[in-house]
Amino acid sequence: MDPLSIGITCPQRSFYERDTSVVARDLLGKKLVRLLAGNSRDQERLVGIITETEAYGGEDDPASHAFHGSTPSNSIMFERCGLSYIYFIYGMYHCMNVSARSKTKQAGAVLIRSILPIEGINRMMVHRNLKNIGDVANGPGKLTRALLIDKSHNGLDLTDCTCSLHIENGKTPKRILAAPRIGISVGTEMDWRFKLS
Q1: How do residues 68-109 score in pLDDT, each as one tens digit?
Q2: 83 pairs with which residues across the strands?
Q3: 42, 60, 68, 144: which has the fewest C-beta neighbours closer than 10 Å?
Q4: CA 95 to CA 85: how far, in whole Å?
Q5: What residues have CB less than 8 Å from 39, skipping those under 6 apart?
Q6: Which residues contact 96 (CB under 8 A, 6 or more apart)?
Q7: Bigger pLDDT: 133 vs 42
Q8: Is there a contact between 101 and 108 (Cβ–Cβ < 8 Å)?
Q9: CB of 155 within 8 A of CB of 84?
């Protein structure tokens, strides 16, 4: 299936080649898409509208994985923009990010904190072993489990609408809230968490 033939488009790489906090804000309303295995005509789509994000910079951001420079585990943050950056945290769950930064910065990524499921909802609920849709993907670890995202998806090109993991364009939200990031002890003064209101 050709995504363009049915009106599906993905933000181009230039969308991600901007200030990380601007990208984090502008990702709200976009769609996070996971294509499950199958031929191109019958792949099952698991889709959620991005409802909450957090921006993380480079050497200028003490809360960022990139604060102390490039390592094998955080190298995606230093590579081209628009790539998936997946990491495992607390020995429990994966977190989904996209590399994004302006051309004057060395590193940056946006954490996808929450999505609103709109396609493949029943499958997501099975993956999470839940009956209440409200809890399916309203957290960074929850959404990766719902969409079956793990380290094998690290480094994928999210600008490619045929990729098994990508981001599609959606509706521009009317109201956005900005607030401090969650779960950090440094860099708390920056209002780099964005949420649909």
Answers
A1: 999 999 999 999 999 999 999 988 899 999 999 999 999 999
A2: 157
A3: 42
A4: 8
A5: none
A6: 32, 84, 86, 111, 112, 140, 143, 144, 147, 149
A7: 133
A8: yes
A9: yes
